[in-house]
Input
Amino acid sequence: MDLKHLRTFVPVAGLGTVSRSALKLRITQPALSRQIADLERELGLTLFDRVGRRLLLTGEGDQLLGSCRGLLGSVSAIGEQARQLQRGDTGVLKVAASPVQMETVFSTFLHKFAQRYPSVQVKLMEAAGANTLALIERGQIHLGVSLLQSMQADDRLFGIYPVPPVDLLAVCHPGFQLQRGSAVDIGSVVAHPLLLLESGFVVRKTFDTACRLARLRPNVLFESGVPHNLLAFAEAGLGVAVIPSVVQTLRYTLRRARITYERKPLREPLAVVWDKRRILPRYARDFCVTLAEHMRELSSIRGRKTPKLDSPKLRHGSARADVG
Output
């Protein structure tokens, strides 16, 4: 079967006219008509009904259309793989992550990644949850870093590389009367005025679910979509902020403690996700591994700076990037 005929059939099926299809394919209308006729003759099927100037798919043509698109997609994937093998360690890597991840992880990771892959250009985009999956499916990004609960990724379609999870932290002024220790029970946290992220955040939903399970009624003093607003209120001694462990707190005078329920930390799994149908170059696979290592290092550093307050488990890395 001549792939040229399939490359003609698919756009004609979408555009529905010989003239528009010929213009898009940059061939003459008679040549396009001959290719469609040759394909119909080879298959022994009528693929289009001619209605005036329109070409409408027959039932048989409609059933073949999906298979033709799949075949052309496979051919394109082979070509893409060959180009990637030729490029080696050179290319563009498009990555999406939340604004908080950009501030706390990518700001220190990109330089390190660039040292390993100086010819790889990393382009960054802010996104989270379902929006990340949509960008991956449309091919607008190669990798997305997000909380798994917010994405509900289908592992049949998406590859997943786990990175250190996000813990929920209780953060307050050092003089605030919150239970001492590197971890505090949710019951102790809820006994104080709370500074919480808005309900759309996954970590907020996790906290609310734990409160319901523990039959606790939180006293919410303030809600915000900006974590640093909560930290400013906490530093002023107005209450206890509940934040994800990826939020930077070094610029504030605060103590941090991991929130637990039934002696288990409240946490959400985090991962790098990609489309399994796309072939990831070696530098993209290595990006996942080195990012996880970097986040573990960050966690270790934060732990040493605040030895009494168990810090979030995340890690770092770095590379040349264009944000947008």
User: Anything to note?
Assistant: The first strand starts at residue 48 and ends at 51. The first helix runs from residue 3 to 15. The domain at 89-324 is CATH 3.40.190.290 (D-Maltodextrin-Binding Protein; domain 2).
